[in-house]
Fold each of these.
Amino acid sequence: MTSAGDLLVIRPKRFELPAWLVVLGLLLRWSWRAGWWCLRHPVATASAALAVTLYVEFDWPGLVVPLALLAAVSLAWWWRHESSWWAWLAGPLLGFVRRVFVYRRVWREAMTLCGLAETYDHRRVLPELLRVRSDQALDVLTIRMVRGQTPEQFQKVSANLAYAFGRRHARVYSERPDDPPTRTGWAAWLLRAVDRVRFRDRPTVVYLALVRTDALRTVVPPFPVPAVPDFTALPLARREDLRTWSLHLLATHVLVGGATRRGKGSVLWSLVRALSGGVASGLVRLWVIDPKGGMEFALGRPMFARFACKSFEAMADLLDEAVDVLRERQARLAGTVRVHTPTEGDPLVVVVVDEMAALTAYLQDGDLRKRIASSLGLLLSQGAGVGVLVVAALQDPRKEVLPFRDLFPTRIALGLTEAAQVDMVLGDGARNRGALADQMPRWAKGVGYVILDGTPDPVRVRFSFVSDSDIRDMAAQYPAPADAADILAQVGRETADEPVRPPLPRKPLGPLLPDSLRNLLDGDGGGAAR
Ligand SMILES: Nc1ncnc2c1ncn2[C@@H]1O[C@H](COP(=O)(O)OP(=O)(O)OP(=O)(O)O)[C@@H](O)[C@H]1O
């Protein structure tokens, strides 16, 4: 048995350092830290050195006069070119101030309480705040994750992060949310090389965008109508960062999901508006089905090549005819190209269906329902490549209501009633990645989530509000050409008379498609665009 007397206590010998050595060590350490800080912040260091020099040389006027001059230059810059003023002066300055005085102050507390602090080797390890970039509406925080964390962990707590920093909305991106700018001019090659480094893939960081001023609170006015629609970028909505969100409508179908009165009409009308230049020139044909008896779309009738709003028989005929167009194009284009290029002679056909459930689920006539389902299935599975696209809106995105939900490559979610519906519309995991479409406040009509091209992260946008008078103006200004309905021999057209349309003078032949689209089609040999 071991007794206390058997234990040998070994104490290390204590070295007493002289006080002067301790002070010297501390001084060296602080100087090293200060020097390192100066190296990492050259602009702040140079400004401070300049300020001290001016003060020593000229006393107070040495500081006040340059500051007044700087303020005047800044004001003039803001007045003449606000966007570059934000990008080069106000944004970085505001970002620096907010980083030091807002985010750094509560960083440890926020990370810990949001569950993002980890423990390693008995120590707390926190994600590191690398940078804050501000603009008119957003603060974008670049954060280095703790080793072993993934962006999904941040996305799951995006709402907690927003409230932790005193904001209502936050979005987490696994890649830089902004695109590299287009560079032109003699120094373009150099700037492009710099951009390649700036926009390189950085899997160790995430980007947290906090909405400082909600740019989506105000109604978005309709966008100007492009004379020749660029199908790769149709302007439809405003983003949180005040930029325009554009729809890529090339070789894709679009599904718009939203509860009643959440603004599905504004999505469809924003799209019709963006296409209307092409409608008048003959580059686009709009075939519209409005099962609500024409309540939504009858105002724009002159723009539509085909319109069915009363009889379900006529709606089924319209869809059958779209399948005929599809078959005819397949026969003609097979072996020539893989993606159809819209032209005046061979236009893009966009079948717009408001309230799709009326055709797929609530229709009582079983035979008609089956006929419609088979046409829709064919259009959705084979129409994108041959330029027969479907754009559909619906309130209830369950599979029983819309069995072909997965055949829509592009999805838009407006306000929804249940959390589960968000993933049904936008795809699995979208809600976890921050698309809180079920938590839309009442004012948020026309506000929704979209998935950007090439990134899995949802973006919040507000669609432009096209009023009745805008629609009347559009219908008067951009009617479909007189021969618009005769794309193929007509099958069972609705008995309502065709509207009288003035024949429009056709423009002389020339490149109808914008360069970006032609390059895209030329470049990939006509491969699928999305
Ligand atoms: N983008 C928008 N900005 C502002 N207000 C909008 C917007 N879109 C719609 N609204 C308003 O919301 C209301 C409902 O819009 P809308 O009829 O488009 O919704 P909906 O989802 O199509 O409805 P329903 O389910 O009846 O088809 C409209 O009265 C309109 O004033």
Amino acid sequence: MYRSAVCCSNTCSTILAPFWDYSGRRVPFPSSRSWGLCSSGRRILCACTAPPRNLRDELASMERNGLNITESLGAVIDAKDGTDVLIECRDVHKSFGEKQVLRGVSFKIRHGEAVGIIGPSGTGKSTILKIMAGLLAPDKGEVLICGRKRCGLVDDDGIAGLRIGLVFQSAALFDSLTVRENVGFQLYENSRMQRDKIAELVTENLAAVGLKGVEDRMPSELSGGMKKRVALARSIIYDNTKEEIEPEVLLYDEPTAGLDPIASTVVEDLIRSVHLKGEKSTRKLGKIASYVVVTHQHSTINRAVDRLLFLYEGRIVWEGMTHEFGTSTNPIVKQFASGSLDGPIRY
Ligand SMILES: Nc1ncnc2c1ncn2[C@@H]1O[C@H](COP(=O)(O)OP(=O)(O)OP(=O)(O)O)[C@@H](O)[C@H]1O
């Protein structure tokens, strides 16, 4: 019997702490950090999910009101009443000890958007992703998910409607589980799907990220790029026997860091393709409704995102479309885009 200390959305399974593997062997916790996060011992399905809100009904109502639902996910719904806003950060502050990291961050992520968060190192990009995912709580300000205030990791327990998944920079696979067990983890644990069906789905999702025949390998037998693709497969797999598929916002923390230029292109295109897939294939609401990418890489900025938020000294100091980034006259953005040592950003 498989058990876990806690459980959350598929893409956040890095914080899960398994006790036994699927064949009944006891396995060690993946990391002390995982255990620390999960110390309550509760089944937390909400770590990456949001308050209840029937987005399908809302979109149907938008349609009735003459607002177009996106034909392609590249086109963002801009509903005047704000029903297209999936995540909103309002005046978010966060400190670690004496260090003030976020000093009033506000932005919205709308349905259909592909947003990049960029900025110098240590400026709080990963911190804001973790706050959106519910893994960290802001000290001040709030995060709204589909218009409802996110209370926190434990308090949001049992909520459903929009899933928020975080794909960690390190891929964060369970070292003691096979690729199949890693990718299918959430389904083995939370769905009623037959094991052979899950295995089929795992193979399908691995193929979607360009990996074949690696199901029985251990993470230690994969290259860095392959691990990132396995993490991506784990983030996009879902129970396809369910009638209602909750839309999901995926948050990627430096998905191409450490990859060679070609491997980066593969991952960037995969990020785009899983975004478009649900919408194009069903002509209904896509599964990956929107995504946010934290990155330092120019290729990822240019290839994988449409809109950028520039975070500097704990605030959003510039936002615009990707094509506006290179021509901005904002001195901070200009210096960052050119990599110059001269300018307001000091190291
Ligand atoms: N759990 C934590 N405890 C203490 N300090 C932390 C913690 N998490 C982040 N920090 C600090 O907060 C600051 C922002 O970190 P964060 O990882 O969000 O930056 P970042 O913009 O993503 O950086 P990079 O681009 O280098 O990855 C850093 O100074 C970091 O050391």
